[in-house]
Amino acid sequence: CTAKTVRQDRRFPDDFIFGTATASYQIEGGWEADGKGENIWDYMTHNKPEVIKDMTNGDIAADTYNNYKRDVEMMRELGLDAYRFSLSWARLLPDGFTNNVNEAGVTFYNNYIDEMIKYNIQPMVTLYHWDLPQKLQELGGFVNPLFTDWFEDYARLAFERFGDRVKFWITFNEPREICYEGYGAATKAPILNATAVGTYLCAKNLVIAHAKAYHAYVKDFKPNQNGQCGITISVNWFGPATDSEEDHIMAELRRQAEWGLYAEPIFSQQGGFPKELSERVAEKSAKQGYASSRMPSFTDEERDLVRGSFDFFGVNHYTAFLASAAKEHKTYYPVPSLYDDSDSSTYTPDDWPKSASGWLKLAPNSIFDAFTFLRNKYGDIDFYVTENGWSTSPTAGLIDDDRVRYYRAALNSLLDAREAGVNIKGYMAWSLMDNFEWMEGITERFGLYEVDFEDPARSRTPRKSAFVYKHIIKNRYIDSDYKPESLTMTID
Ligand code: GBH
């Protein structure tokens, strides 16, 4: 056998931050424990259980509410530098507003955070990962312009209570999924299906809410707490299927519709919504008989408030799609809607390996493509991969070689991007453990640890990928020949 050479230049630096990510509704359970209020996922799954593929819900989920010490033990087993999780707004503020603080909820997060700090694991907190208090939804949620103030008040409470220990804040997880899937389509709570205008109203209010929270942090908390505040946007790669001009234009329009809508107002020099997409929406709105564009504009003051409101850019990246003007790839979208406005269709090649999720395939070097593009567009800023991962079926078990292949490929692509000069400072694998996968219930599993949902204790068992990830974290390079000797986990 030949001696293996480890390319030292392919190492992750010692200060590179390796972690895993989760979200409150997907793991916590305790849906009405100790004074927690109802959120839009509680409301939707209880009132319309049929919208979830297997009719399950997050009432118990992985029961982190009662298992948080085991979660932190798993973080220690993996040797994580950091752990990204989200706060449940309704657990802290049952009615959404700060007049009524649920101290039991504060205590739960204090315990979780303290347990991480005790073992030198850096907590990275997402303020909002999709579980809006139902009371605020009844007032219009993200399409009420006052949402921006409600969110700032909630953010301030979180900074006040947890900011002595939490130094990394993400305002929102995935604006596209909140605004397009929740308001524009019917694929996430509150399943509003307001295709024509919902997405755009939400997008505007969301970026302003983000900016208000960011400025509150910078002005009133950062001077003492010294942390950072940013946002996480889902940036899958959308490249042209061929080198034709049509495909290039289509890919650009698709990128603007998928993530430019939220990234451009915050990260671009000029601020505001993406130019070509805005023009199309205005044109189409006029033709469709609207008195004004379905996409709202920003006042100068709003534009200035939002642009530059970040310390870092968090990216959730999973896969890629090809934009194609060819007839056989044409998708017909509802009129009017975001994707109809963007005049774009996409597909993925049949030979890209498939996961258990319809939308998720292993695309070649897509982290490199996405991040070099972002760096060229928005400059030399700090990036974090805040989610990246692979799903398997519930019966696939512990030997998850396809997940191992995916993580190795993704981390290789990340190293390529770093070598090309993109400042990616950390990587959070999705997910620490199996959890409630939204509309898919528990039919798709993303965990490095398997969770037994039949077991009232929700026991957690490491998969093969957990050992491989642990080995990468410890050695700071990707050894593609590494095989765990056994699946017995220890804390090093
Ligand atoms: C992330 O979203 C979420 O932040 C996280 O909560 C989630 O568990 C994780 O990914 C895994 O899914 O079925 O064609 O309607 C990733 C972006 C957008 C991917 C919505 C799935 C559904 C596409 N997600 N998409 S489709």
UniProtKB/TrEMBL annotation:
Gene3D superfamilies: Glycosidases. Keywords: Glycosidase, Hydrolase, Signal. Coiled coil: none annotated. Belongs to the glycosyl hydrolase 1 family. PROSITE patterns: GLYCOSYL_HYDROL_F1_2 (PS00653). PANTHER family: GLYCOSYL HYDROLASE (PTHR10353), LP05116P (PTHR10353:SF36). It holds the Pfam family Glyco_hydro_1. This is Seminal fluid protein. InterPro entries: GH, GH_1_N_CS, Glyco_hydro_1. SUPFAM superfamilies: (Trans)glycosidases.
